[in-house]
Amino acid sequence: MEAFNSLLGGFAVAITPANLMWSMIGVTLGTAVGILPGIGPALTIALLLPVTLHLDPTAAFIMFAGIYYGAMYGSSTTSILLNTPGESGSIITAVEGHMMARQGRGAAALATAAIGSFVAGTLGTLAVTFVAPLMVKVALTFGPAEYFSLMVLAFVTVTAVLGSSRLRGITSLFAGLAIGLIGIDSLTGQGRFTLGIPNLLDGIDIVLVAVGLFAVGEALYIVSRPELRKAEILPVKGSVWMSREEWRRSWKPWLRGSVLGFPLGALPAGGTEIPTFLSYLLEKRLAKKPEEFGKGAIEGVAGPEAANNSAVAGVLVPLLTLGLPTSATAAILLAAFQQYGLRPGPLLFTSNSALVWGLIASLYIGNLMLLVLNLPLAGLWVRLLAIPQPYLFGGILLFSSLGAYSLNGSAFDLILLWVIGLIGYLMRRFDFPVAPCVIGLILGPLAEEQMRRALSISQGDASVFFTHPLSATLLAIAAIALIGPMIWRLRRRRAAAAS
Amino acid sequence: MTEASRAGPGTHPSWGRLILSAGLVGLGLFYVVEALAIRVLPTYSRVGPRFFPYMVAAGLIGLGAVLAWRAWRGLDSDADPAGDAPMDRRNMAIVLGGLVLQSLVIEHIGFVLAAALTFVTTAAGFGSRRWLLNAAVGVVLALVSYEGFTRGLGLSLPAGPFEGLF
Questions:
Q1: CB contact under 8 A, A399 and B35
Q2: Stretch B3-16: mean pLDDT, rounded?
């Protein structure tokens, strides 16, 4: 009941004309960047950070949340019609959805994706509403040792889950941690790793790293691969109104996807890839006609698209209640909180309850707006894909330079921008996932702070991390997540060698 | 790794990956040297400002060493994830060159000209050679952003000949 009252208060904040406008701007922008290949929600929010410095934080977060949700809707459109996923959570949709579009059932695929996203987004937001206050109660018992262990767990799961190789994921994380060390040490006030360059005393801004890795790195990679520069866009064919048969085949996957997505998004297991993939496998197993999978089965669009939106809602729970980002976009959102001098965590729910609940309420409204924006208007949005690639990337790099320069008003940041962009190119070329680097960068300094705090409370006794039961449990889970798969693979290899 | 993948695409060392791993080890060693220069107060005897940097440096060196070993044995595929067509170095250099040039000249020629320059070089890299049209689009886009962001949102961007026309 308490959550219900808080939510009502949140609606009072979200329903003001100004905040409705910010929500509308957010979902529209989000759909657009979701559709456009080469830009995603993390990059968009990063670019908007310097610009929104003087904006009211509640309005800014309502807009950012709209962008995050909207991008998930928009990216399914690109996956279905272009066969290039707009976001990593839509990789699976690109498989079945694009096959449907090839068979002239593109409109039905878009419809089941949009309605499924709406169902899952609403159910996911409902879960946030009631789970977040419970998580706050748990989070209040956390001390520095627990926070540090939780971050270690997040480091492990994020690197183990994202990308094709856990070794390369961990390397990407450590690169982020290394960049995060640059600047003034928060506990002793002295500069570290600044090479005597005064511009580095404030550290390398996460906006710069995100824009460099996502925008510049992506542009350099795509321009270096001629085969990535041409793509065929399929026209939207068929009726947007799904047939009775299509409804019958979609509603269960929507619900199953929602149920699967939320907890996997809320656990520090990193992002939307895993739940979408699991939902796809589940639907394939439960389908009456599994042979249709890979040839355009509607269940293979409905389930993963629902899982992906519900996972996005799930990501907000650890972000808001613990200050723990589990995806690249969540890492940028954490940076946004820091920009306004806010610290996400259990105290945020009491100190800034209007902001938190206004944000949650705006998710319900944003979801409804997105359904209207995407279901009847999908055909209009597709025209965005007609922007010629030279202009699209010219524009992306122009706005990237604008955002990078305006951070500190210094050309030094533009030099850092292309240096980081080159690193981003190399990471793509050699198949290193980018997200762990961004998460390591923002979480590294926080983890160091919590670790040193825990150790100064215990007067240097490192056993605090193992004697506090909660902290020990978190570390044990981290150890299992890190070593478990290795042992499993080793045993399987032995078994294979024996037979 | 199974026998099949060991005999697969890369039984020879992957030089690109080897250089990258060497870079990681080098970075880790550099972090150790730099961490030694951090001043430590006597009261922070156990976990001061050096501890976490040491852990990160150790991680970089260890990961770099493992990656280097794998690269030497050719265990990680050297193929580009996007396909095996030859890399387009020329156009990549054009896009990168535009960004480098912009970072050097922006404070001399102003935001609008520098950003328009980046727009034109990027568009050229991506295959559009309509220089005049692209330059016009770039200048208009940069000018609109300049006016919008400096007036509407109070950002400060360097001025040049175009800025302040309105």
A1: no
A2: 58
- Answer whether A108's CB lies under 8 Å from A413's CB: no
Within 99-128 of B, beta carbons closer than 8 Å to A belong to 99-100, 102-104, 106-107, 111, 114-116, 118-120, 122-128
Q: Are A301 and A333 in contact (CB under 8 A)?
A: no
Interface probe, candidates A155, A401, A416, chain B, greatest B C-beta count within 10 A: A401
Query: So what's the pLDDT on residue B121?
Result: 95
Is residue A339 within 8 A of residue A49, CB to CB? The reply is yes
Can you state the angle between helices A299-322 and A57-82, rounded to 10 degrees?
A: 160
Taking the CA of residue A466 and the nearest CA in chain B, the distance in Å comes to 17
Q: What is the secondary structure of B144-157 as a DSSP string?
A: HHHHIIIIIS----
Q: Mutating which of B102, B104, B150 best tests the A interface, going by the most A Cβ atoms within 10 A?
A: B102
Q: Considering only CA atoms, which of A376, A234, A258, A247 is closest in space to residue A299?
A: A247
Percent of chain A predicted with pLDDT > 70: 96
Return the C-alpha torsion angle B24, B30, B31, B33, nearest 10. 150
Q: For chain B, give every domain's residue range.
A: 1-85, 89-162
> Which residues make beta-bridge pairs with A192?
A183
Q: Hey, which residues does A149 pair with through a beta bridge?
A: none
Q: What does pTM read for this prediction?
A: 0.89
**A99 vs B82: which has the higher pLDDT:** A99
Q: Which stretches of chain A score pLDDT less than 50?
A: none
